Amino acid sequence: xxxxxxxxxxxxxxxxxxxxxxxxxxxxxxxxxxxxxxxxxxxxxxxxxxxxxxxxxxxxxxxxxxxxxxxxxxxxxxxxxxxxxxxxxxxxxxxxxxxxxxxxxxxxxxxxxxxxxxxxxxxxxxxxxxxxxxxxxxxxxxxxxxxxxxxxxxxxxxxxxxxxxxxxxxxxxxxxxxxxxxxxxxxxxxxxxxxxxxxxxxxxxxxxxxxxxxxxxxxxxxxxx
Length: 225
What we know:
This protein is an all-alpha fold. Helices cover 72% and strands 2% of the residues. It is built from eight helices and two strands, in the order αβαααβαααα. The protein has helices spanning 6-25, 44-60, 70-100, 107-110, 122-155, 161-177, 184-204, 208-224, and strands at residues 36-37, 115-116. A two-stranded parallel ribbon has the order 1-2. α2 (44-60) packs parallel to α5 and α3 runs parallel beside α8 (208-224). It starts with 5 loop residues before the first helix and ends with a helix.
């Protein structure tokens, strides 16, 4: 990540925490707005969030000149995207299996009563697709690209392995519990997905493979809903 003045980086970090990290994290405590997920309206919030994270990405992104050849595009985008998508799908199957075998007595404590409405016409499908695209961009740029590296950038702890590990765990938990309104198994699935997507980002040194895998996984989930 590009380093700017400490005050500038700190202000941006605080704004992102307050404006982009806390709202989804605290959504569980405002379930009146999340009891039903419908796609009959344009996803303005996801659009705004994705645009803001794109601005942050442009501000901090260091230009990668190694993606100009088709060979590098394959090895750093196409292949990682395919592999990551397959891993995410396998993990979701495992989590789904676990959710089906839990004892009936504790089912009400771990499964959300959220009602997700499947798109039923072109307009709702189009809004759903946009929501998934904006969401994949926003989450990959925020949780996989920005947060971990921003902490290291602010406190200049790049050489401290323990700080890196703590930061990775903390961001993983933040991302996971941002999905708490979907149920505890969605939290588990999100935590595992974050680990895979973060690993993809670190290996590929770009966010494109993660965004594509994230989007493809969400679309497949919708189809199987």
